[in-house]
Queue: 2 jobs
Job 1
Amino acid sequence: MNDGSSMSVAMLTYSTRARGGVAHALKLSEHMTTAGAEVTLYSVAREDDESALRGYFRDTRVPFVVVPYAWDSDVITRLENMIDAYSHSLPRGHDIYHAQDCVGGTSLARMKRDGSLKKPVFRTVHHVDDSAEPRLFEFERRAVKLADRRFVVSEYWKANLEREFGLDSEVIHNGIDLDDFAGLPPRRSEAPTVLFVGGLEPRKGLEYLVLATPFILDRVPGAVVRAVAKAGFRGVDRVEWFELLAQRAGVLGNIEFHGSVSQDSLLQLYADADVVVLPSRNEGWGLSLMEAMACSKPVVATRVGGVPELVRHDVEGILVEPGDVAGLGLGIASVLLDKGLAERMGAAGRERVAGYSWDEAASRTMAAYSEALQRC
């Protein structure tokens, strides 16, 4: 048991969709399975969402269980329904329980409090969404404190948890499998192309990119912005709002909005992109930035959260302050106009992310599991 092999792990996510924490959970679980752990993925999904109930956004060789819950328009009621679904359905026989979000973390904490769960509980804190509605923000704040042991994905969030909550945590960075991005399909886009991969929720700052588009077009006429974005947990962020914003900014004809896309479609979008942009207000690390860098694409992002630990200004990309619409647009345009700069940044990005390994993340996670079990 000391090397982490043969331990039984329950890995909890709040969704089966292509979200950062979900992608993290799948990759971590797959690499821990390769290392000998017996991992089962758990998620909750709306009882009327047949696609989500069938499984995750991509195939995985890790066994999984999707638990249905009753959706409600009120966010806190919906959270309680998700937590109750987990609490009534999760088996108690795993050795380790690991939550990737406040839903699973709160459910596990309640199970420990009522005595039905007596095993170590871990939590990965990707970020705490301070741009969420106040009730959801407070729910997340409380949930951070409930685990026996916490992981974070950046030094920024380690310092933040210590400063804001007085909590210890261990940094285990996200990894990347470079083979997933080897052999990109041929480029199809003839226009200078900007790509955003994220969500519609306020934290991701997509509206900043929409408002920056006139600055881009002033310098690069004919540029196209493609946004791959879905509503976040709240489920109320609508693409129509961003389309209206683009229309009022006079750039609707230059922006494409995409919802969920397949992995093959995502690779095509990366292949077509000249630069990948993440204009977040708050960010844990930035998996889409890692994916872009793995594809040798330059990036433009905001200097928030763990992003500056991954992207070095003027090396792998350009960093601007959150909300600096003009700076964002000018930074994107400068990359589009200088192919030599773009190629240098893309090559530097590919080299940088090669140092982040899911095997290492899995090994360190399993070592923490083993230590916790030895203390039981």
Job 2
Amino acid sequence: MRSVTFRLAVAFAGVALVGVLTVALLATRLTTTEFDSYLERGWVAQEQRVADQLADYYSDTGGWRGVAPVLASLSRWLGQRVVVGDNSGRVVADSAGQAGQTAISNAPSDRSLPIAVQGKPVGKVYLLAHEADCDWGRGDSAMGRMDDACTDPCGTSPWPTRASSAPQAAETRSTPPPKGNEQATTSEQRFLDATNRAVWLAGGGAASAALLLGLLISRQITAPLHRLTRAAHRVAAGNFHERVDVGSKDELASLAAAFNTMAGSLAAAEQQRKQLFSDIAHELKTPISIVQANLEAMIDGVAEATPERLASLREETLLLNRLVTDLRDLSLAEAGQLHLHTRPVELNELVTTAAAGVQAQARDRGVRLELALPEKLPRVAADPDRVGQVLRNLLSNALRYTPDGGTISVTAAVDGVYAKSPQRTGLARVTVSDTGPGIPPEDLPNIFERFYRVDKSRSRAGGGSGLGLAVARQFVEAHKGRIWAESNPGKGATFHFTLPLALDAGSA
């Protein structure tokens, strides 16, 4: 499998090559076309100047007498043979010295320029290639016509003879006349070739630079990816402390930051997993040890199986069952598999029932339990068993930390959304407050974690199992509600949780 570096480099090179080839071909074609057009315009302008000079000569002298030296000079300047004919088509002057011997009535008209003086035509000028072997001198009169037998072995005849066939004549007429002498033509071609060569060299240089740049950029992209890959392999092997530093502020840096966050989360999860196993073992060990010791004593006859001892063993088994049930409920809630039997229920009834369950224990300790519930509280959409467990956990937690003679208050209310919503929907909020020692600020963010206790002594009597608040959070969030705590150390703690109102939001 080819590497990303190779594919990126090839992609950069391919795009650059296609772009350079396209630009080079278009530039070459346009340069050649425009250069040919430029040369053509130049020669047309030169030919027109020849016609204008001859017109001036005719106007100054009143005829063509003595024009031969002028034609010779023009021929040397243009590098072409210059022939002047009158209006009847007879040669009157020729830079080759053959004036008065040839008729040019068959010459192609597109190779001639009219000569006019004051708008009146006085002749034509023909610009022709120099003859190699053909002779205009043979004719049947002093101003005889071109010899029908004249051939052009060098291929330089300016026009076809009458013996030529029609297709040959058409082909000869379509051939453009030579422009300039050989030296000028060679110089122009060298200029055009140099221009095209410069275009191709520039294109080659651009393609090479693009390839080099593509290699550099691909290395900058793939090097962090290679580091991420190596780090991912190490994390997969169990090294959750692996981190990646990209050192940039682009998308790769965001990817590295996400990887580092993931690695941190995995490390925290691994630590929590280990702590969970330790906590479960600790929580299960104590009641199991108590049950085991009492049973062994009874079997050995050291202790008598009295109703009191059997009741104590029953309490320990109930504790074990509660721990296992809480752990099961937590795992189901965290996996999103906790089944809720939601229906419209009276929140006042749920609060009153939960308070009655701890009323006797609160009375024995001299703790006052106060309920402040509105008479017409809208019903909530909830599973009464799960919400009842949330209330019991919060009340038990408050009772555990409230000193003798303290107070526990339970209130319920409806958020303002209910009154303002046309659908009469919103949230109901329940608040449980105590007058205990409160929760230190550094412990507040963690009190809803599994097996977390503010009291690090792990005393079951003073700190509980550490699962009650974690279960409460999972149950409330399963109802699409929210639970949170507030505390003023030394003045007690307050727990709030919300539940969605039922669709009818009425009171039974």
